[in-house]
Write a structure and sequence with these properties.
- It contains 12 helices and 10 strands.
- By secondary structure, the protein is α/β, with parallel strands linked by helices.
- The protein has one domain (about 5-225): TIM Barrel (Alpha-Beta Barrel), CATH 3.20.20.70.
- The strands form 2 sheets. The chain has an 8-stranded parallel sheet with strand order 4-1-10-9-8-7-6-5. Strands 2-3 form a two-stranded antiparallel sheet.
- Helix 11 packs across helix 12 (about 275-290).
- The termini are far apart.
Length: about 290
């Protein structure tokens, strides 16, 4: 199973502290109308860390139901607790997801042997295709290319990796060392185009929450061999990419969607609204980019 192009790391709208199902369905529908290539609910951007297991299963189910098979759904189902990751993966299977996104266990920082054992157990007890998620800025652990290649060769359910190191040298090593056809996706919007040029497959994107067509068109232009158009779209997104991380993700992107009228801006603690200065910079950039 190979995933390619622009896949959106979906935010989870809240209203009065609960999941805003109507706004979520409308966001999913808009994403598909805009030409997005896939959807990724319950990742970092979806505030999965603040969802109960029941809520996580519900968010995935809604996404699958609303998508109706039009694009693949890769559901966040990882944990630093292997048993919990198995349980979350089974929820994703029951909801009908096409694959899961599996973060490397955070905080406990397993060795390469521990990582292999974690993913092997996951495959044995809740078998379905999954994307390994390497994001050392969140986990405190960098899953190195040789380790990723070892896991890719020994665990058949691992079909790809979301590389969020922003290190193109490391991405190059991953593509070089992993089996042919192993799906390599960018986890950093600003590296999406250079990763494609190295032989990667696409991006799991934050900015495509608010610019789905632009990100999808950039990936499509690259695949069609139109590098000039791909570069133009890359640079069109760059100012927005920068402001998306003015504070911790997903605070800026959810605030942007609120400014665009997609839903009420709301977070779960410990995330809080943007500071006033950041909010002003975000609003100015969205206006300059024609998004509001």
């Amino acid at each position: 199973m190979t995933f390619q192009g622009a896949l959106t790391a979906l935010v989870t709208p809240f209203k009065n502290g609960e999941i805003d199902q109507d706004a979520y369905r409308e966001l999913i529908e808009w994403q598909i109308e805009q030409g997005i290539d896939g959807l990724v609910p319950c990742g970092t951007t979806g505030e999965a860390a603040t969802l109960t297991h029941e809520e996580q299963g519900e968010v995935i189910r809604i996404c699958v139901e609303q998508t109706k098979g039009r694009v693949p759904v890769i559901a966040g189902a990882g944990s630093n607790n292997t048993k919990e990751a198995v349980n979350l993966t089974n929820l994703a299977k029951q909801a009908g997801a096409d694959a899961t996104l599996q973060i490397t266990p955070y905080y406990n920082k397993p060795t390469p042997a521990g990582l292999l054992a974690h993913f092997k157990t996951l495959s044995e007890e809740a078998s379905m295709p999954f994307i390994l998620y390497n994001v050392p800025g969140r986990t405190g652990l960098n899953c190195m290319p040789k380790t990723i290649a070892m896991i890719a060769n020994e665990v058949s359910d691992v079909v790809g990796v979301k590389e969020a190191t922003a290190n193109l040298g490391q991405v190059s090593d991953v593509i070089e060392l992993c089996p042919e056809g192993f799906c390599v996706l960018s986890g950093d919007d600003f590296t999406a185009l250079p990763l494609l040029a190295l032989g990667g497959h696409g991006v799991i994107s934050v900015v495509s929450n608010i610019m789905p067509k632009t990100m999808s068109d950039m990936c499509a232009a690259y695949r069609a061999g139109d590098m000039k158009k791909a570069q133009e779209l890359h640079f069109k997104m760059q100012p927005v990419n920068r402001v998306m991380f003015i504070e911790t993700n997903p605070i800026p992107v959810k605030t942007a969607l609120g400014m665009m009228g997609k839903f009420e801006t709301s977070f779960r603690l410990p995330l809080v609204p943007l500071e006033d200065a950041s909010n002003a910079k975000l609003e100015a950039q969205l206006k300059e980019s024609g998004l509001i």
